[in-house]
Amino acid sequence: MTHPFDLSGRRALITGSSRGLGFAIARGLAEAGAAVILNGRDPATLAPAADALTHAGHRVEIAPFDVADPVALTDSVQRLQADQPIHILVNNAGLQIRAALVDQPDHAWQTMFDVHVMAAVRLARLIAPTMIQRRQGKIINICSLMSEVTRPTVAPYTMAKGALKMLTKAMAVEWAAHNIQVNGIGPGYFATEMNAALIQDEAFNAFVTRRTPAGRWGKPEELAPVAVFLASRASDFVNGQIVYVDGGALANL
Ligand code: GCO
Predict the structure, then answer these.
(1) What's the pTM?
(2) Which ligand 1 atom lies nearest to the CA of residue 187?
């Protein structure tokens, strides 16, 4: 009997995985035995990420497409599923647009919804039927602290991450009977490129370390083990949960 966290024989698609949290999750799943499919908009940034994992001895494919482009997404996933299944889907691709709510134009709201929510819907709509046929599947949606609480200037992102939390629960209850487990991960403040401007801002840095009981920013590699758990048979009776990896931020007044 292999270890409950073993992902040998599994194939995982991780969106937005050329860098940051997505790449860390892909590396963690690969280290647990999964074959990983890296996704990003730009093949030029996917290649070095794929090379790094290949050089580490892992099985890697690349799938360059923009998750906000329904045609490219559909074509790519149909090709990926033509001759072998996708056992694990990690909806990680995301971006942030920071501005006062009244200054956020329509396209900011639409972009946030397209990237964080509709991409997850479209990918699951294409992949879940094959998981239903096989009676096995794992879907992990990368939510956020902003799925629960928020701060000024990130209203569109907050809207989208709140929607993604409830979409996670909707997917979970829809497909649990088919042995598909759908859960979310809610990262706290992590040191990623998306947050570079915040990390370099002394006042914001002080805010994060004050609001986070652990007193620091998270490291991307600290998120991967939770993704391995939710991608493995160790979580076969876990459905519709959002696991917050936040250094205690949500527990803190
Ligand atoms: C911000 C950040 C946050 C974090 C993360 C927290 O502007 O406050 O981008 O949104 O990145 O989402 O969970």
Answers:
(1) 0.97
(2) 13
